[in-house]
Please model this.
Amino acid sequence: MDSDSWSTCPFCNLPVPSSQLQWHANAHFDDLDANYDPPQQIHLSPNSPLQSLPIEKAASGSQYEAISGDCNGDGTSRDNRECKLDDKISCLIGLQTKSKFYKVEGGLMALLRNCLESEAENSKSILSGCVDHFQSLESVDAGWGCGWRNIQMISSHLLVQRPEAREALFGGAGFVPDIPSLQRWLEIAWEKGFDAPGSAQFHHVIYGSKKWIGTTECAALLRSLLSGQE
Model:
């Protein structure tokens, strides 16, 4: 067995070809996806150090999908498709939920910099600007949410460091949404034409799914939101 072309599944520990790892891992959640109801609120212990934020109404499927009937026509014309997409965006801006995160005093990157500077080794490290820490939770996204958490951390940096991005991200909400809301934003990015091959791979639907995402989905979501800033 060529170790360079095989990987171990993190869920069942079976060796699988590296090219099939994502498909194999996602298969573990196929039976769960149909029953997955995205949480409207993350419940945490009273002693949790997570930043407390107001919770808005979740972007539920019934409320969000109902707007598809708000525009006249059969949905085939370009004007009608754009009308529906604009309505979806307006609806999502009002329904998206703020995510909770770890607020590290002085910034997470400052903490990491202090740790690196305390090491005796003579080495160089390159750090990004400040970010908030969005941690996977056992009861919410353990085992599949790392891609979404990366999007949240990147977004937290852009919201603080880039005024133009703050106005463009998530409808100018000024906060980082939770995973179900981000899933809706990715679906909107796909409707706009970003990452058509990736959209087809997920059958154009990601909301409510526990399937893994990667850098292409992150790029599609952020590019769709920041396309006017390029």
Q: What stands out?
A: Residues 166 and 174 are 6 Å apart (CA to CA). Strands lie at 6-8, 15-17, 50-51, 101-102.
